[in-house]
Amino acid sequence: MTQYKVLALDLDGTLTNSEKVITPRTRADLMEAARQGVRIVLASGRPTVGIRPLAEELQLDQTGGCILSYNGGKILDCQTGEVLVQHEFPADLIGTVCTFARYWNVVALTYDKDGIVTEQPDNPYVLEEARINRIPVRGVPDLPAEIAWPINKLLLVGDPVDMPHVEELMQQEFAGRLSIYRSQPFFIETMPLGVEKSASLDRLLKRLGLTAANLMACGDGWNDLPMIRYAGLGVAMGNAVPAVKATADAVTEDNEHDGVGLAVEKYILGREATDESDRI
């Protein structure tokens, strides 16, 4: 019986391939792991509405799996519907972040129950976020004035050439007030202070009476670094950024070649590789 009772999976670049789908082999491996009692957590910067279709595909409502959305801002138990972890974005900083975004020529967006809300609905990076999540975009004239509900994050999107500098400026401007991560070259996640995947996974594990030693995590991007470090077994995808590979305990195949499935087979299901192409 595996020591890994919880399996946390980043989505884009990890669980899903370039077509944003789960490959058949990986899906079968995850379903088998769930049947054996492993709790699967889909851990992403995506909004809850953008993760739900994948959770339904993996039948997490039947196996006690969870959705960790907004980079850790919220954890939902798919079986009971209970919100296990919730972090709300500071209301007094919404306008400040949006003003910052406008000044540096990047676009801020957030989410309502149906999809994306933003001032620039035709921006190509906004449309990419919509494509990734398969959700609609609603344009509004003034985003801070529109938000009348608790939000979990603001996403800033822009040209990948500019984003490292914008991220550095944000880290300076909002030090001690927000948690800020770059999840894609063109995405900067802005979250309530202290929110990231590992912190929320730690709270989930404690609720379950488990520790980090019982967690296996797979990821590829900068925002996955905390959970890769935290997990008892941190697995980097073959397509992961160099920092994730350097931090991980193991490196698997890329997201186009069943990287998650192969890692699950080896470390959870206990299957040996059958040929050289299956080795990780």
Structure summarized in a few sentences:
This protein is α/β, with parallel strands linked by helices. Helices cover 34% and strands 21% of the residues. Strands 5-4-3-2-1-12-13-14 form an eight-stranded mixed sheet, with helices on both faces.
Helix content: 25-40%
Number of extended strands: 14
Order of helices and strands: EHEHHEEEHEEHEHEHEEHEHEHEH
First CA to last CA: what distance?
A: 21 Å
- What form results from the Cα inertia axes? globular
Q: How would a crystallographer describe the biggest sheet?
A: 8 strands, mixed
Class per helix and strand makeup: alpha/beta
Strand order of the largest sheet: 5-4-3-2-1-12-13-14
> Regions with pLDDT < 50 over 5+ consecutive residues?
none
Rg measurement, Å? 18 Å
For the residues shown, what is the average pLDDT? 94
Counting DSSP H or I runs of 4 or more residues, the number of helices is 11
Strand content: 15-25%
Write structural notes for this entry.
It is built from eleven helices and 14 strands. It is α/β, with parallel strands linked by helices and 280 residues long. The protein has helices spanning 24-35, 48-57, 60-63, 91-103, 124-133, 143-146, 163-173, 197-207, 225-230, 242-247, 259-267, and strands at 6-9, 39-43, 66-69, 74-77, 83-86, 107-111, 116-118, 137-139, 154-157, 178-184, 187-192, 215-219, 233-236, 250-251. Helix 1 (24-35) runs parallel beside helix 11. It has an eight-stranded mixed beta sheet with strand order 5-4-3-2-1-12-13-14, with helices on both faces.
